[in-house]
Amino acid sequence: MADTESKPERYIRPPSVESSGEAPGRGRLKGRRILIVGGGQRVFDAASDPIGNGRAMSILCAREGAKVAVADLNRSSAEQTVKRITDEGGDGLAIAADVTSEADVVRMIDEARRAMGGLDGMVLNVGTFGKVGLDAVSPEEWNKIYDVNVRGPMLCCRAGLPKFDDGGAIVFISSIAALKAGSQMAVYDSSKAALGGLMRNIAHLGARRGIRANLVYPGLVDTPKGREAGAGRPSRGKSHIPFGRQATAWEIAYAVLFFLSDESVYVTAQTLAVDSGLSAM
């Protein structure tokens, strides 16, 4: 007799109030001065775009009591993030900066530190995509992508570390593309993988002053950038994700919050994949 018992439906992890960005602040960053590099967001479909990682991080840090400097290549986008912060009663300012320009990075660090009265936290949420494979990527394009994805964070750390207060924290934002060749974009995957080596060196350099450096690997996240990457690929972010859905930007932001807060005061040179286990299973 044939077994007609139907298979159970896939469990889909329901969002929490934190996942939806609706949880109240708990004062986890009270008195801190945080610079979010890449705190604006790109537009894919203005009518339906969800919040992006950098904007969620910025709002959450302010909600948790920090002064927040929101830096972005697009000043208008940074200002929109700051408006979200101030509308909630938070303290934020916008800075326009191009991380591929050393002069811009030095100015950004100085401006943030001066406006906030110090600097003890920085999130490096920068990155740009490339083409699939190797043959389609010219050497010039390869270098441009590395300039943003690797050289930019290096410049931020080089300019920022001497200006940091002791005991601060730096968080790098990589991607699970650094852990597996799923995107097929060799230039993107390898540049994001390089951040791990950079992070460990920054942790080593900062250790004598108690400055911690850690790294977050976001998985598939429902953001404007994620939707752009998945355009034309309707299966992206569905059946093969262990929890049955993509992450929200808020879920990435809470991982960053942990690394910025004193809850992780004895954690440095570590990585955390926020991907429902996608990179390991």
From TrEMBL:
Record key words, sorted: Oxidoreductase
One Gene Ontology MF term: oxidoreductase activity, acting on the CH-OH group of donors, NAD or NADP as acceptor
Region annotation (Disordered) ranges: 1-26
Family annotation (InterPro entries): NAD(P)-bd_dom_sf, SDR_fam
Transmembrane segments: none
Skewed-composition ranges (Basic and acidic residues): 1-12
Record family assignment: Belongs to the short-chain dehydrogenases/reductases (SDR) family.
Name used for this protein in its record: NAD(P)-dependent dehydrogenase, short-chain alcohol dehydrogenase family
Organism of derivation: Bradyrhizobium yuanmingense
